[in-house]
Amino acid sequence: MKSGESTEQGSCNIEEQRAFKALYRLYDEGHLPQAILLLSNDPESADGVVNYLANKLLNCDDCRNHMDFFTVGPNATSSQIVADDIRSLITNIQSSPKVGQNKVAYVQHAESMNKYAANSFLMTLEEPPADTTIFLSTVNKYDLLPTILSRCIVFKLHSEKHYSSSALEKIANMYESWLNSLNAKTSFNLAIIEMYKILSCIEENFDAMADEMGMAKPELLKVLVACLEQKTAEVFKGNQRIVLKLHNGIKIFEKNKCFLSINCNIIAYLETCFILLTRFFERNLNKSCEYDNGY
Predict the structure, then answer these.
(1) How far apart, in whole angstroms, are the C-alpha atoms of residue 119 and residue 94?
(2) Which helix (H) or strand (E) holds 71?
């Protein structure tokens, strides 16, 4: 990938996508799978990844106008992809390339295939023509037939515009209120009680947030960390000493994200971080508090 080459498509810069980096590396090494399913809450992100890689495979600047780039998807007249659509696509990719040496097929919103279309596609997905790469995109892989899924390599994309959910907003607001209460010299014991309310909310909603936002748990942790850091900076704007202390405390999350991804012991580390923050405030902002943390 050339350093000056733009990969900005849709709602985010696809170059920042972990899945895109993995796909590009596979392409660069000559090991790109022939049947690829892109799972994304944002169809524009999937389109951007497909268009970029298709440009590489077809050696062109805009694959959308290329004679060996074939797409199928829902349209203004039909919300379904029907068997005839897939048969036409198969006919095109089974012919020889018209330009160059490769062909690319893209099934957008693959969950829109009815069962007849999906079944007619199985053999081609199982053994695509040697010179053809097939991309599919979907919002929810569970809307696809298991036989389609089993024939594809799945890559999960994320999108910044889906980095919010009602639960995440609720947690962010609870955290902001908690910081404000600490800064207002709330008693340390009360701060601990409020802290566990936030932890309980995170624990209850974490799996649902991951599903809603289409993210793996370690990735969601990173988003949550960024959200808390932003709220911290907003509450303590202008007091760089406090912001730096809190920023360093929050990094406990990130230092343990690999461990968390294995053990999923998320709440324990959130608890550690929250207690670190409350101890800091107890020492520095609440000298009159009766609680003695032993430091």
Answers:
(1) 17
(2) strand 69-72
Amino acid at 44: E
Residue type, 113: M
Judge whether 70 and 89 are in contact, CB under 8 Å. yes
Q: How far apart are CA 235 and CA 104, in angstroms?
A: 50
How many whole angstroms separate alpha carbon 168 and alpha carbon 220?
A: 10
Domains of the chain: 8-160 (3.40.50.300), 163-284 (no CATH)
Calpha distance 111→134 (Å, rounded): 15
Q: CA 242 to CA 236: how far, in whole Å? A: 7
| Model pLDDT for residues 69-111, shown as the tens digit of each residue | 999 998 778 889 999 999 999 999 999 999 989 999 999 999 9
The answer to whether 64 and 51 are in contact (CB under 8 A) is yes
Other beta carbons less than 10 A from residue 21's beta carbon: 13
The fraction of the chain above a pLDDT of 90, given in percent, is 32
For the question of whether the overall pTM of this predicted structure is more than 0.70, the answer is no
Q: Do 121 and 112 touch, CB atoms closer than 8 A?
A: no
List the one residue out of 192, 197, 207 whose CA is nearest residue 170.
Answer: 197
User: Which residues on adjacent β-strands are paired with residue 98?
Assistant: none
